[in-house]
Task: structure prediction
Amino acid sequence: EVQLVEFGGGLVQPGGSLRLSCAASGFTFSSYEMNWVRQAPGKGLEWVSYISSSGINIYYADSVRGRFTISRDNAKNSLYLQMNSLRAEDTGVYYCARDGYYQAAGYWGQGTLVTVSS
Amino acid sequence: EIVLTQSPGTLSLSPGERATLSCRASQSVSSGYLAWYQQKPGQAPRLLIYGASTRATGIPDRFSGSGSGTDFTLTISRLEPEDFAVYYCQQSGSSPRLTFGGGTKVEIK
Result:
């Protein structure tokens, strides 16, 4: 069974940093492209970042480029999101999601809540 | 950047009725890279449709997707109680890599 479990969320002050992790199991992690998607409270879904299966190709949304860094460790079946210079508008639930056919996200974790507030 | 506009914002229907949700793109979506998701409160999104019209594994056949280019539709033929939720369309294949629509809430009338 495919499982994605995010952790590392929490309360952080504006300007602070946080590192999210996503532990993958039930599939060959090194074969799949991965994404981070977030959702502000009461709002819609926003794509944050993408990383290819090898980690070579990486993309970011304009809203986080230069502040967030996506990475992966295929030996540990883990995906990461290093978030620096956090802002109030970065508050929300962060999901890791596995790419599938036509780049649709077929599997999602349960999400981890990030709250940026003083 | 491709912008996806979903309509209506809210759809009020009764169980057993047909639901028709629209997703319009500001530019042509490449090769059918259009997906639909369902999200219930407190849950992660669930993939319903990919490639514009292919149902994901385990999705009932009352859900169907259609469209191409800039106009796409999700149809729920007969609403079941568990179908009342928020639905998002998503495009991929164009920069930025993924874009979501603003969502359509299907609520009980």
User: Anything to note?
Assistant: The first strand of chain A starts at residue 3 and ends at 7. Chain A touches chain B at residues 35, 37, 44-47, 50, 59, 61-62, 95, 100-106, 108-111 (CB under 8 Å). Chain A is about 0% helix and 50% strand.
